[in-house]
Here is the input.
Amino acid sequence: MARVELRHINKRYPGVQALDDIDLDIESGEFFTLLGPSGCGKTTLLRTVAGFNRQDSGEVRVAGERIDGMPAYRRNIGLVFQDYAIFPHMTVGDNVAFGLRNRGRPRQEIAERVARALDLVRLGAHAARLPHQLSGGQQQRVGLARAVVIEPQILLMDEPLSNLDAKLRIELRDDIRDLQRSLGITTIYVTHDQEEALVISDRICVMQGGRVHQVGTPWEVYARPATLFVASFVGAMNVIADLRVGAGGALALGLASRLAPVLAGRDCVTLAIRLEDMTVAGTSEDVPSDALALDGAVDKVTFAGREAFYRVQLDDGPQILAHVHRPERRLLERTGARVRLILPLANVHLFDPALGRRIEAVS
Here is the structure.
């Protein structure tokens, strides 16, 4: 196990600041995920740790030792790639043994460590097979076994599940998490899939435009987004932009009356609330003192089995989506009906419209 420290990492390509003063501490044994859309800098950062990219400035330290001056082959790092990167002409066992042979390990030690690694990824009976005889999920397990068999200080994984179908992704992500926990190896994982990041991580670093927007546990990132970008990117969120606090309408008046201390001195805010964090009720429903109420008409109901989504046209103008878990049949036939959306203040997120940063003390 090893702690990873990234200090003021900068990387610029022509016309693009790929990494902008990245400063991160990744704890020993932690499963740390870099999450963000394509082009946000997450893979560039991973490749910088691996030694495939050279930063313009800053430091990379592993277990207290500065490694950014070392070539990639000298860094004791295990790598798992998106495209499996296994040799098609080698058997499964030979693929896994490749790194150990390059390190000159004794034959008996190689055999024992390869067998253990294949057992860890549930491929113990497949050592003699060639890659074309394996499924995509099995090929990725070979890549995982090859990465851990060398007993690296840290494990880097770059979108390892993106080439698999949905069912295999769920199965393999659970296996990866279980394997990481059993080995206790510090892992840096790159993905653009928000659900995958929430399920698999100890902590998540959300990136955009080469910058870190938030680092936190899955709960913190989902429930207490630090910026409007994080709120919008991780999970589904209703966003009402540039809401004038002093304007008319139930939402503005409700905010002004119930959140006056938070809004002091502010003329405008951006409000966000998750689809599942509000209640769809009748228009006569009493409003608790710790909630806001918005009235409107149901514009559309989308039924998805165990859940339904209501698109509500508010009387004040914007549309809001609400999520209902296990809806009753009568609730699915409400297009055009008048409803009241109850928004608990604890679930309301407010952001500064200019900076996009969270306004605290809402809950």
In short: The chain has two domains: 4-230, 236-351.
